[in-house]
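Minimal example, chain plus magnesium ion.
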Amino acid sequence: VWDKCLNELKKSIKPHEYKTWIKDLEFISVSGNRLTLKAKDNITKEFVEKRYLPLIQNVVGKNFGKPLKISIVLQEKASKGVMLELNLSTKKAPKIESNLNPKYTFENFIVGSSNQFAHAAAIAVAENPGKAYNPLFIYGGVGLGKTHLMQAIGNFVKEHFPSKTVVYVTTESFMNDLIDSLRNDRMTQFREKYRTVDILLIDDIQFISGKDRTQIEFFHTFNALYDSGKQVVLTSDRPPKDIPMLTERLRSRFEWGLIADIQPPDFETRIAILRRKAEDEGIEVSDEVLKLIASRIKSNIRQLEGTLLKLKAKAQLEGKPLDAELVRTTLSIEPGNSTSVSESFSETLPVDEIKKAVSQIMNVKIEDLDGNSRKKQIALARQIAMYLCKKLGNYSYPKIAAAFNRSDHTTAMHAYNRIKELREKDAQIQSLLYEIEGVLTRSVDSA
Ligand code: ADP
Ligand code: MG
């Protein structure tokens, strides 16, 4: 078919131009709605792209019977011998590392009201990659199962559609890969790698915030995949609209498909997750113990699992049974019935932790947060600290005011409202808060 196209092109282009630029273009593949050609050098590639792309596209569209996007590459990866014109995608030569952890599956993902929407969306995408929702954007707090669900999609596809290529990367390693490729002049390989997969899973996309070069490259990766009907799945700790310093065109693409959130698990789901984990680890525990743990740890499943393992280790070390008493002393829960326990305990962040993080990141003395200085930076830091006390610690306004040496609780309320408003419209404040919250939620996570 390509030869036919060449013949037709020959007729519509001046002979010497045809000979110089077009004649030696080599047909590589048609995959999805993209036709790939190889040029012998960069000059040819650039010239053809500038001058002849619409013409080639037109001719190709007619002869292949469907509109195709044209890519011109310098080096083809596909094997040179057999060249199936259509459907090269099923004959992919290079083996790509998926980076999937087989332990993350749908089978061992416990579904509850907090995650059932995201779970259903993930199943739909796994069963119908590229066709159900594209992209699928999953967001939610730390340790709530985003990575697990995303990798479950990948593992499912690998099992049920073995010919499809799946790549999982964190945003950070995508970025590092990009930097490496730019430095070592390997951008062609980089693009090959990310633009030819069937399913691209990118974890923690919020970290692309402010990374301009990565955003540009990812924009093109996204378009290439999307245009050829390939599936993109993204996770983030927040919805697209709350990711600061993200170009509008990427933000809007993140919103093209389906956005699904994961909420903290309710009590029943926490129990179910603990029970499952205990079974998997061969830990024998009573319901009472599970309830006690579930009432103490509420908003992070990683921590929930970690606590169970910690308790198991402690029980072994001290030669004691893993019973309610051990849980109580370890997690310092007073005796009493577990429902009242679940009411009275939460993982509150100490005010001092918040002050410390704010003072470090904003370079303001801790004493100044409690003082009366009206210097701009200090006043802002104080308001941010109060805001975070409300947002992350859920302290009452009178308590917050008191913790900052103030008698009037409306001060804390004003601070909260002001920062909340600023956060919505000021990218700098957004990223500042993002950084401080990052530090604070990490310290809670590893506590
Ligand atoms: P995130 O990426 O949202 O920070 P992860 O996917 O890493 O969270 O999940 C943290 C831990 O909790 C993992 O070990 C994961 O297997 C487990 N986990 C999360 N959600 C569930 C669930 N619904 N059922 C079973 N395990 C879960
Ligand atoms: Mg994760």
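The first strand starts at residue 26 and ends at 31. Residues 77-94, 336-346 have pLDDT under 50 and may be disordered.
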